[in-house]
Amino acid sequence: MTVTKNPAIEADPDELLGTDVIAAEMGVCTETVRRRIRNNELRAVKLGGEFRVRRRWVNEYIDSSLVVA
């Protein structure tokens, strides 16, 4: 039996991602990601005029947004 690796688990948590990558992974538009950054809901740094977010911060944001039904 072959076990496939989940790339999200293998990913570097300190990797800096652009808003376009985050939006695609979360299934939202880039403006939604930027709005969450501006509202201090999602941590980010600004490099060269563009927001960058560590993968770890994206995971923390998602974990803090979980809703238990």
Automatic annotation (TrEMBL):
InterPro entries per UniProt: HTH_17 (IPR041657), SinI_DNA-bd (IPR010093)
Pfam families: HTH_17 (PF12728)
Domain Helix-turn-helix: 17-63
Record-level Gene Ontology MF annotations: DNA binding
Domain of life: Bacteria
Signal peptide: none
NCBIfam families: excise
Name assigned to this protein: DNA binding domain, excisionase family
